Amino acid sequence: MAVILIQSAIYLGVIAMTRLARPSFSKLCYRRSDKSINLVHNSLKIVALWCILAAYVTPFFIIPHTVHPILGWILYLLGAFALCSIAINVFLLPMLPVLVPWLGIVGALMVMSFPWYPDGVVRALSVFVYAFCSAPFVWASMVRIVSSLQLSLEREAFLPARLVESSSNSWFNKLY
């Protein structure tokens, strides 16, 4: 129980700190596109998507196995929300598309916990139908996250102007 309380306190602290430490949106300004930094843009997109995936996977592995399932799921959802809030804050992502899988997990838990299923087969089919119906929403949220990352990269949220100027003045660009 002490581990659960410590993890809960850490997750609540992370959520509070990410809410207090909001990045400044006034620093975002448009710049012209440069083809030499496409690799950096694609790398940042992949890193952001991996961070979101890690935010949903990591809490699963650090929850004690001997905890009651209800406490475990609450701790998992709190941890996933805390780590997703870090990814939202770091990569300047919209909150709802990042939390759509979180809402889908909550919905799947509600479908699984419905008490009036006649047997396990009907329960499993219900979870499958729910997953089938929620998959387009998860896909749409992923598309929205990637487009938001592209917009942030075009606004120079991650690359300062000096880095862009130095990459455009590199020896490779002067040759061609």
Automatic annotation (TrEMBL):
It comes from the Eukaryota. The chain crosses the membrane at residues 6-25, 46-64, 70-92, 99-118, 124-146. The keyword Transmembrane helix applies. Keywords: Membrane, Transmembrane, Transmembrane helix. This is Glucuronosyltransferase PGSIP7. It comes from Vigna mungo (Black gram).
